[in-house]
């Protein structure tokens, strides 16, 4: 275990330690850090050899990452994994829209997070990402000749809580102290210096067109606060589609038929080379051999533009939708930032310039590197190295409440700038529940028992309703003096309760460090505990709902049905007693599958409702 020196409270970092920013990409991942001399960011992975493709390859007993994995991928595609980012924080059901054929097997784990099966073993996307992050950490340490523990990792602006948590977990599992997870468009803005100074509010559009994905984000930036007004995009649209359009053009022009997979690969690579060359020159010509005959391929600017225009138009449609969602006009956009290799294409640039006519176009920096560079700037700020910058106070430990199963549910993640206010909606777990105990905790561990309890209160007088129906809004407000106000309100009835506490009271810097260190050291064990607790809670809820169903709709069941259901429930209870997560999940699935026939007949809204949402 590497030595970890964590120091967040003072905002300074031991001189010997480097902080880095990571752009954990779908295709490629990049690391950047800050040059000590001029405090400017640069990519550690900017040379071709050290770009780290987000690809893993599993041998009998070794796991290859990055370029080494890519080499193996061509020969042994079945043992290679790519695009893990698309799986982060997703359940099997969430992946219905994953319309691409991944060459690896995804395990149906019901409503649990998905797993990937490789050579008889199952891996979670968190584990897989952690291997990539570990590799990046190693590359950074080699290049910098220094230990690297502190990191800021970027995620798309549209990532939800569970995807962000998964990314954070992956960092922890890789043995790193994740200072913060920030949005990719926020990082890109920072790289251009937007949002670094306490300035007037600015509305910014970040246009990110990579190899396989397109994202447009509209941000409002003021006094170092980045607010996402809207996001839009297409998770299956990018430079790869430009290549396909060129390839299709050539196939038609030269009447190419019956090509072998390797010839098709050659054509695709030639198409990409042509597209890239036309970002600089006007004509591309090359002769390749297909089916034993030589074919002279050529492409000029106009042909390329005609081929890709429909694709670019699609991205502009997304921009329009984003503006609509943000409720602003095109003319309100003051800055446009270009991100992603495909924004080098002249027609892309021209189209954006025309569309966002009132905005300043930011395209001086390398569009592949801006996100990682911005992440490095954020890491530098959080490490307290920017004396020129007003360092806003941050909370050193996460703040949250206990949810069913003894889990820590974070409302204010650590390193959040204060003052801050966050809210989240919860519900009850038992029918007719009229009181709700709210336990407030501080810390980074997954189970509240491992965290520090700050206080508790009871929300009384919730009108009796079926489980899952009450809407309880929890608000955490941390003011500049470090006082945390927690309030809970049942929205249907207006019942409200509030309490104030002081998280920093009675805890030393030393204790904070110990707590952070423990959370990294116990990352794997904690995640196992959490998934056991989640599976157990789900199983208990299912037993509860099923029992209720039998009580209320028993007449719909034959006695054989009832006996079978009871046997299934006994099996689940046995699995819960055995504390065996996989067994709990499989028995829960079995009961779900068995009772589907009845559930569909009488689907009781309460049951489906009761099975959704976090319960306290
Ligand atoms: P991702 O974020 O999806 O990993 P990148 O931002 O690295 O993708 O962009 C990769 C895409 O950029 C590829 O489709 C590649 O062909 C394209 N690209 C790279 N350089 C150029 C260029 N000079 N002109 C046009 N497209 C380019
Ligand atoms: Mg990218």
Model description:
By secondary structure, the protein is of the alpha+beta class. The protein has 4 domains: 209 residues, ATPase, nucleotide binding domain (Nucleotidyltransferase, domain 5, 2-Layer Sandwich); 68 residues, ATPase, substrate binding domain, subdomain 4 (Actin, Chain A, domain 4), CATH 3.90.640.10; 121 residues, Sandwich (Substrate Binding Domain Of DNAk, Chain A, domain 1); 88 residues, Substrate Binding Domain Of Dnak, Chain:A, Domain 2. The strands form 7 sheets. Strands 1, 2, 3, 4, 11 and 12 form a 6-stranded mixed β-sheet that branches. Helix 2 crosses helix 3, helix 4 packs across helix 9 and helix 11 packs parallel to helix 13. The two termini are 36 Å apart. The N terminus is likely disordered. Magnesium ion binds next to loops.
